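Renewal narrative, Specific Aim 1. Our central claim is that a sequence can be written position by position from structural information alone. The example that follows is taken directly from our test logs and has not been curated for this report. It begins with the structure tokens describing the chain, in the order in which they were read.
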């Protein structure tokens, strides 16, 4: 049952803000109707203020009883850094539309490996929980650069039958990439139905290449440039099995062994120069002190 909405509650209010690192932060947002409708694998389109950019963010968690949607954001561009500065507890987003995209396929999977790398750790959690609730045997594999960046370890352990942490420097869990965790799972279990991997494109491609010789169905959640989230702009085009798909309405989940990752990564670089220019201008503006009042001669 969805919790009763507080009268006069501010739309899209940030009810919880948690910082995992200097660039990664969590926003828990009050939106009961969206929390009721959300499913694993879906995303929302967010605007932090009226003149802001629309950006897609994968739903990292949802609580139907509290009526909240959780997003985990990495401050890498102008908009996400602006949100990092402004979206504190008690603030509110200007707009949030969703849930969008096709929910992840959960039914019929008896044994699954849920893989998350970096920021992809957050959105793979709802899948792991849903598989567990559906009766599947869940093996969690998550990767971080080092132990200081680890988050949600307890949450994953609560929904995983087996849980493997990988770290680049070996400071936590096993030393190595998430593909090492996948290898351990596949060598131990010969009856895995599916591997689902979410993270940077280079990581998802590595997972796809690793599982292909094993013949294990592998799913990835794609994150191309997206403007409206409805398929109208065409910005989120991806090539899957030689055909053009739109990640916002045909995905974001796709068969990893059919995805053209070279095309995906090339498209992600398309506006890199413009993105850097916008970020530089914003950062310079943040450093400029309030301009002094200048008197006009003869006024």
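The sequence written for that structure reads:
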């Amino acid at each position: 049952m969805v919790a009763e909405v507080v009268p006069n509650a501010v739309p899209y209010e940030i009810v919880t803000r948690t910082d995992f690192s200097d660039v990664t932060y969590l926003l828990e947002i009050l939106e009961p109707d969206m929390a009721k409708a959300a499913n694993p694998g879906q995303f929302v389109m967010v605007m932090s203020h009226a003149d802001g950019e629309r950006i897609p963010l994968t739903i990292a968690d949802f609580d139907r009883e509290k009526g909240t949607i959780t997003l985990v954001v990495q401050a890498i561009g102008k908009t996400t850094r602006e949100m990092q500065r402004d979206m504190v507890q008690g603030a509110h987003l200007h707009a949030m539309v969703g849930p969008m995209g096709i929910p992840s396929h959960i039914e019929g999977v008896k044994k699954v490996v849920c893989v998350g790398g970096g920021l992809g750790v957050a959105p793979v959690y709802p899948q792991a929980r849903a598989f567990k609730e559906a009766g599947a045997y869940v093996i969690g594999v998550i990767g971080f650069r080092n132990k200081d960046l680890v988050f949600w370890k307890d949450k994953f352990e609560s929904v995983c039958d087996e849980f493997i942490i990988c770290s680049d420097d070996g400071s936590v869990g096993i030393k190595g990439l998430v593909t090492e965790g996948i290898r351990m799972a596949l060598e131990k279990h010969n009856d895995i139905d599916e591997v689902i991997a979410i993270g940077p494109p280079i990581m998802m491609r590595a997972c796809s290449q690793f599982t292909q010789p094993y013949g294990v169905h592998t799913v990835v959640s794609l994150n191309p440039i997206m403007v409206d989230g409805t398929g109208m702009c065409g910005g989120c085009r991806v090539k899957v099995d030689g055909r053009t798909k739109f990640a916002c309405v045909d995905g974001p989940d796709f068969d990893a062994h059919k995805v053209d990752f070279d095309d995906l990564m090339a498209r992600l670089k398309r506006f890199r120069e413009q993105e850097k220019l916008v970020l530089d201008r914003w950062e310079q503006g943040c450093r400029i002190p309030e301009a002094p009042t200048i008197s006009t001669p003869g006024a």
